[in-house]
Amino acid sequence: MARSADIVIVGGGLAGASAAVMLGRTDHEVLLIDPHDPPRPDFRCEKFDPSQIRLLRRMGLDGLVLPAATQNRELWVARLGRLADKLAVEQYGILYQPLVRAVRRGIPPQVRFLNGTVAAISLSDDEQTVTLTDGEVVTARLVVLANGLNRALRGSLGIGCQTLSQTHSVTVGFDVVPTASARLPFDSLTYYGERPQDRIAYLTLFRLGTVMRANLMTYRGLDDPWLKAIRETPEAALTSVMPRLAALIGPFAIQGTVRVRPADLYVSTNIEQPGVVLVGDAFGTSCPAAGTGTNKVLCDVERLCSVHVPRWLATPGMEASKIASFYADPEKRATDLSSRRAAYALKARSLADGLLGHAAGYARYVGRLAKGFARRGLARLRSLSQQAGRLSWRRGPAQAGR
Fold it and tell me: Domain 169-263 is in which class?
């Protein structure tokens, strides 16, 4: 006898687990299918910025995620070995596996978890049939595909893939430790590439637990010898493209495994089908360097679970026209477009060479210096004003007594 549910979620990563939490708070029967329990390690998003934290709060996930993450309260911005600005920030660092584990802990107990792999899905306007590799069958009104980069299952449904930019970027992840001091002098640092020919967007360093985590955003082919060098001799390879970095942060070493992750930009096609909806990377990817991937995933899940699924399940049927309303959602479309534009714009700026490219780079650096100088000046004036106010208050009662 087949299992049944109102909603089957295929994939228990960030997108699928978040959807399970939100849909599990409703009266609908929800079943989550994933082959990995606990979730396996992966090199994905490792930091939340304020816009993503706002989305977590909007979805009611902040109480699950933020206690498991490391808060960073100050950001240094630098280039060419010089500090341009210091900002007060609200950022959190967390590796992907602990992130997914934290979200999964918040899945309500009424959501059933099936540890398995989906082999096939059969679709119709009314009922969907999900078949696992062990032969088990699950029926549902709606299937949420949140299985990330796995294209095989989507391909079996006739869903295609349009590649927008092959190997658009390559992200390198590693841990950094100081060798001449107990700790580095900042919570987080964004250090921009020094020369366009190095094909580096920026290096971001941020505290994550007891270590300083590094994500280096590059635009290189997978056959680039430098990527081989960063795995084998990481300190020398990093110094070759950022020779002034040590002058700013002090001597350092790279510890542990160096992870390299290429990112293609693609979007799924032929997606308006009955009974199945795609979220997160299953729908389309983003560039990690642009820092918008988590926004896309969380926006997809929030719009689907808060707006569209309640409407769909309120009436009979699950025809393609219902599913199309999710892909046409204005907030989703705006987030997708913004993410794509950010990916191309950052790459163009980072690789801009020649006189105009160099001039634009220095102009941005000088602009950041000016903002930092103005911000520090205002902070100094505010501090002096507060000191003067306190001094005036102290003098007032004493003079009144005389």
Answer: alpha beta
